[in-house]
Task: structure prediction
Amino acid sequence: MPMNFAGKTLDMAACHVMGVLNVTPDSFSDGGCFSRVDSALARARQMVADGAALIDVGGESTRPGATPVPLQEELDRVCPVVEAIARELDVIVSVDTSAPEVMRRTVSLGAGLINDVRALQRPGAVEVVAETEVPVCIMHIQGEPDHMQDNPHYRNVRREVSAFLSERLRVIEAAGVQRERVILDPGFGFGKTARHNFELLNALEQLQQLGHPLLVGMSRKSMLGHVTGRDVGERLSASIAAATIAALNGASIIRAHDVRETVDAVKVVAAVEEAGL
Ligand code: PT1
Result:
């Protein structure tokens, strides 16, 4: 099952690691600022050396409590970095955005995957993706990042996440996005209690029944703090355990901060699976 990400293909029957590259506010204020692009490129280069098959570039924080970023600000942060990585490195550039204009511009600059935590629900997003040929990851979210953790509630989280993704699939397919280029993500930490997240991790194989490759992101998240009692900087072992479970249960892409360690874990899972053939 190869998927084509703007000229680079990945076997989605295997598991790959996507490195996280945040280009959120810092000391550099202006967009094309050399220092910002340069340090992002250096970080991306290290993640590629560590075995990342994809780099996820994000200019809007979507972690719990984060507030929206104006469009121009997001464009200024993300575009120069996407362009530099696509030009300089042999890796698939993913862009973590919900803004149709950011999708359009970054694909023209060489991005190979659109990663939208809002599942193309912003006006115009489905249409922009339909005009491109790149794969898209649609993620389940309940609410918006600023308030999504206020009081997450489900009658049956597995069924509701699955129903949401099925409905979004129906809508975007009807708009002309071929199903062969859609990746699904249950959205760990996006409007969910720790219990909800673990129920979803437990049910990953059921989500696979939807017939699409799965992307998962649990790296350093609070669900891991909940069970270990550890702060965000001390969650590496828990992140590797979660990544290992996801890989064993069929995830095709694992979004992670600690690329080298996650790649090692994925290699161990692949060796176990290889031995069973
Ligand atoms: C994700 C993801 C993402 N996560 C995809 N894109 C984030 N496709 C950003 C916490 O509970 O899982 N899938 N883009 C980061 N978001 C969060 C959410 C970070 C929750 C931290 C938490 O700590």
About this structure: The chain has one domain: 2-275. The radius of gyration is 17 Å.
